[in-house]
Write a structure and sequence with these properties.
Layout: E1 11-14, H1 19-31, E2 35-39, E3 47-48, E4 51-54, H2 57-64, E5 68-71, H3 75-87, E6 92-95, H4 102-113, E7 118-120, E8 126-129, E9 133-136, E10 145-152, H5 155-167, E11 172-177, H6 188-196, E12 203-209, H7 214-225, E13 231-236, H8 260-269, E14 273-274, H9 281-289
Parallel strand pairs: 1-2, 1-5, 2-4, 5-6, 6-7, 10-11, 10-12, 12-13, 13-14
Antiparallel strand pairs: 3-4, 8-9, 8-11
Helix pairs in contact: 3-4, 5-9, 6-7, 7-8
Length: about 290
């Protein structure tokens, strides 16, 4: 089993005919992902990459049964694209777009909360279930099928963790890049919970960073859940100075619990196997899986 996406997911690309949408849709199709079409307003009825183009998400849902979307729409229009997808009945909305205004995401979050769908991102690398579906911008060749789930705020560290795991002779069930913006659809806790509850995932890698409460919330949920499924955790940004945004808009240390040291302490107290360097992730995963 996988979470969020698999070989049966029917995926559309919003912003399909743009440069980014075209490039990554080609990569996804080449990987074997079931891309059933795309949406570019005003270009409905055309064909692109041998797939149909629709004017609206609703048309794509009605005509090709789309249930998952990946969004490559410019920041000014991305919030509307997310809400359009939710309104049309899309179940999984993966938003790659970086730089969506926080005020727009506040509205999006309220809108999504009232609907039966899952938003991943924005400003994320996407979701991959190896050998089934790559709905994102990650390098597919790094990921091999296996029994380790990955949750990460960082795109590059998602790939690094996968590579580390694969080098140990293991593989990945699903890797979820949740994004590093201040307001994101799927939190660390929610992504960790999906993987902990997935019967095929035997270990979870959780990669966080300084700023915010997401990792602490996930750690506390894990402790309260009573799960014995091991989690290996890493926090990026240990050397970042307080008060400075590092890389991601959400990666800023505000209070004493936002620091890497505090997060690592909380995670350790909640039973998570914390590593000090991304280079230790694979070895630690192999160790806890015995």
């Amino acid at each position: 089993m996988s979470v969020l996406v698999n070989k049966d997911s029917k995926i559309i690309v919003q912003g399909f005919t743009g440069t980014e949408g075209t490039f990554h849709a080609e990569q996804m199709i080449e990987y074997g992902t079931q891309v059933v079409g795309g949406v570019t307003p005003g270009k409905g009825g055309q064909t692109h990459l041998n797939r149909p183009v629709f004017n609206t998400v609703k048309d794509a849902v009605e005509q090709v049964g789309a249930d998952t979307t990946i969004i490559f729409v410019p920041p000014a229009f991305a919030a509307d694209a997310i809400m359009e997808a939710a309104d049309a009945g899309i179940k999984v909305i993966i938003t790659i777009t970086e730089g969506i205004p926080v005020a727009d995401m506040v509205k999006v979050q309220a809108y999504i909360d009232e609907r039966d769908c899952t938003l991943v991102g924005p400003n994320c690398p996407g979701v991959i279930t190896p050998e089934e579906a790559k709905v994102g911008i990650m390098p597919g060749f790094v990921f091999k099928k296996g029994n380790v789930g990955i949750v990460s705020k960082s795109g590059t560290l998602t790939y690094e963790a996968a590579d580390q795991v694969v080098r140990q002779g293991l593989g990945i069930t699903t890797a979820i890049g949740i994004g590093g913006d201040p307001i994101i659809g799927t939190t660390t806790k929610e992504a960790v919970q999906m993987l902990v509850e997935d019967p095929e995932t035997e270990c979870v890698v959780m990669i966080g960073e300084i700023g915010g409460q997401l990792e602490a919330d996930a750690a506390k949920w894990y402790q309260e859940s009573g799960s014995t499924k091991p989690i290996v955790g890493f926090i990026a940004g240990e050397t970042a100075p307080a008060g400075r945004t590092m890389g991601h808009a959400g990666a800023i240390v505000g209070g004493s619990d936002d620091t890497a040291q505090a997060k690592k302490r909380i995670m350790g107290e909640c039973g998570i196997h914390v590593v000090d360097s991304p280079a230790e992730i694979g070895v630690k995963v192999k160790e806890v899986l015995g």
